[in-house]
Amino acid sequence: MVIYQPNPLETKVFAHVQLRGSMPYLWQQKPDLKWEPKGNIYLDSQNVPVARKHFEMISKEYGNQVVINLIDKKRTQKILGTEFQRIVEEVAKVKKIV
């Protein structure tokens, strides 16, 4: 929380909430002993509606969102990171998310 008081008669309070979780679409990883197990996407025709519903629920609870894709886009997670970016871009066409 940041409290800013530009003058004695005015106080502004700013807050930041960080949400972290799994990617909001249909994917799976087979458990193994590798450091970077490969992810697979399934039912990709349903992924945009699933993600849209997720972002709508989060928006109702927390307001505007900033979405950051921290998925490795080079090695075994590349397919997941690329799909996440595609889905966020599709959802953003209808609803403004950054």
Can you describe what's shown?
- The chain has helices spanning 47-62, 78-94, and strands at 2-7, 10-14, 27-29, 39-41.
- It is an alpha+beta fold.
- The protein has one domain (19-94).
Task: Offer a quick outline of the entry.
This protein is α+β, with helices and mostly antiparallel strands. The protein is built from two helices and four strands; from the N terminus they run ββββαα.
Mean pLDDT: 81
- Please tally the helical runs, counting DSSP H or I stretches of 4 or more residues: 2
Any low-confidence stretches, pLDDT <50, length ≥5?
Answer: none
- Beta-strand residue percentage: 15-25%
Separation, N- and C-terminal Cα atoms: 22 Å
Order of neighbouring strands in the sheet with most strands: 1-2
Order of helices and strands: EEEEHH
Structural class: alpha+beta
Number of strands: 4
For the sheet with most strands, the description reads:
2 strands, antiparallel
Cα-based radius of gyration, to the nearest Å: 18 Å
Helix fraction by DSSP (H/I, runs of at least 4): 25-40%
Overall geometric form: elongated
Indicate how many domains the architecture comprises: 1
